[in-house]
Design goal:
The chain has helices at about 50-55, 80-90, 105-115, 120-135, 150-160, 180-195, 205-210, and strands spanning about 5-20, 20-35, 40-45, 65-70, 70-75, 90-95, 165-170, 200-205, 215-220, 225. The protein is an alpha/beta fold. It starts with a strand and ends with a strand. It binds adenosine-5'-triphosphate and magnesium ion.
């Protein structure tokens, strides 16, 4: 079966104004992401990996370029439509968990559903199932301050997946973990990818993680290099 392109980015340019000049960060990036594929991105610090991830995930806008999801021209969508599209289609995991300290694990995972208008019972059932799957069934009512680093990251992963996104973006998701926990989180990413037919885009400095990706792209100075 032919592979289906899910997300296609063309000629993405991003710069920041710096004094009187412009600082070019992304210099015409092209990328095609296939359905169900696991893509890793590596590159030196400051090369533009996080900037690109934010743009692909529609959290930031480029100055030039095109971003197409299936037949949707994302950069032409009104912000409100884009926000609900993002909530339903894309999940995000970062180096720091960004969980809400005043909510329990279960409530944190339910939050994207509640924002998206999913009824409470349904949201709770979905959050519960995912936390179970990630081995956190005994941590449902724990607050972030009552969990370990590895557990917090698993809750963050559950939160990213609770809307059943098509693409999971992760920016150094193991950056804060020891090698044992990093290994566990790596396993979880690939397990979830298979289970939900997710497309993964993972930026990582972790060599053990990077080498597990069937496709690994290297970024240098705002461009791909081989
Ligand atoms: N808001 C901003 N204003 C100006 N420059 C910025 C801004 N955000 C990022 N940059 C610059 O863009 C460049 C790329 O940053 P980015 O965070 O994408 O790098 P990275 O590849 O993710 O690095 P790391 O591996 O350290 O996370 C850096 O030189 C950074 O200083
Ligand atoms: Mg970064």
């Amino acid at each position: 079966m032919a592979k289906k392109i899910l997300l296609s980015a063309s000629n993405i340019h991003k710069s920041y104004s710096q004094g009187i000049g412009e600082l070019q960060i992304l210099k015409g990036i092209n990328l095609q992401l296939y359905e169900g594929e696991a893509l890793g991105i590596v590159g030196t610090s400051g090369s533009g990996k996080s900037t690109l991830l934010q743009i692909l995930g529609t959290l930031d806008r480029p100055q030039a370029g095109e971003l197409i999801y299936e037949d949707k021209n994302l950069l032409a969508m009104p912000e409100e439509d884009l926000a609900s599209f993002r909530n339903e289609t894309m999940g995000f995991v970062f180096q720091f968990h960004h969980l809400m300290s005043e909510l329990t694990a279960l409530e944190n995972v339910m939050l994207p559903c509640r924002i998206g208008g999913v009824p409470k019972d349904e949201a709770e059932a979905q959050a519960h199932d995912l936390l179970n799957l990630l081995g956190l069934n005994e941590r449902l009512s724990h607050y972030p301050s009552q969990m370990s680093g590895g557990e917090l990251q698993r809750v963050a992963i559950a939160r990213a997946l609770v809307r059943k996104p098509k693409i999971l973006f992760a920016d150094e998701p193991t950056g804060n973990l020891d090698s044992t926990n990093s290994g566990k989180i790596q396993e979880i990413f690939f397990l979830l990818k298979e289970k939900f037919n997710l497309s993964l885009i993972v930026v990582t400095h972790d060599v053990s993680f990077a080498q597990r990706f069937p496709r690994l792209l290297r970024m240098k100075d705002g461009q791909w290099f081989s």
